[in-house]
Amino acid sequence: MADDILPKWRQDFPLTSDGEDEVTRREFARYLVLASAGFAAGSVAVATWTSLRSINHGVPQQIVVASAVPEGTAFLFRYPTPLDPAIVVRLAGGELRAFSQQCTHLGCVVYWDRERAQMLCPCHDGAFDAHTGAVTSGPPQRPLGRIDVEVRADGMIWALGREVA
Ligand code: FES
């Protein structure tokens, strides 16, 4: 092909390679769009799966008879496995809340402090809201793992599932 009929960019960059005409810019742009759409769909799927599995770890399990946990007291148990320390607290007003006892900072065991009405971690003075498990002070960055509980007709407190952090 004579230089006078080549496009200007080809005259400036006269290098060629085998198969350079097999993928046009339009096709390449189409691949980019499809790949981007695939990544976006994957991100949405992962986010959806993460939110749906927020409370689905563990199977229903009896904890203790509800009358054994009067207002302002706590009861220690293991959930969802015998290796997972957990605590259920009856707050002022009678509401029950249960959490993993594992501090979200470095894993020390938290305890119920009736005077402060909070969950406290003795290792670095971490403190958590006893209603929500949210961090109220100290170095932890994440809330305590929450355990759904209910009192059933048999008068027992049941753990229903643990939030997976
Ligand atoms: S391990 Fe609980 S505050 Fe550090």
Give a nutshell description of this structure.
It contains two helices and eleven strands, in the order ααβββββββββββ. With 165 residues, the chain is of the alpha+beta class. FE2/S2 (inorganic) cluster binds at residues 103, 105-106, 108, 121, 123-124, 126, 138-140.
Keywords:
165 residues, alpha+beta, 4-stranded antiparallel beta sheet, elongated, binds FE2/S2 (inorganic) cluster
Describe this structure in words.
By secondary structure, the chain is an alpha+beta fold. About 20% of the residues lie in helices and about 30% in strands. It is built from two helices and eleven strands, in the order H-H-E-E-E-E-E-E-E-E-E-E-E. Strands 1, 2, 3, 4, 5, 10 and 11 form a seven-stranded antiparallel beta sheet that branches. The longest helix is centred in the N-terminal third of the chain and has 28 residues. The N and C termini lie far apart (about 65 Å). The model has no long low-confidence stretch (mean pLDDT about 90). FE2/S2 (inorganic) cluster binds next to loops. FE2/S2 (inorganic) cluster (FES) binds next to loops.
User: Counting H and I runs of at least 4 residues, what is the number of helices?
Assistant: 2
Look at the structure and give the mean pLDDT: 89
Our Rg estimate from Cα atoms comes to 29 Å
Strand content: 25-35%
Largest sheet, described in full?
Answer: 7 strands, antiparallel
String of helices and strands: HHEEEEEEEEEEE
Q: Report the uncertain regions.
A: none
Ligand inventory: FE2/S2 (inorganic) cluster
What structural class should be given to the helix and strand makeup?
A: alpha+beta
Number of strands: 11
Q: What helical percentage do the residues reach? A: 10-25%
Apparent shape? elongated
- First CA to last CA: what distance? 65 Å
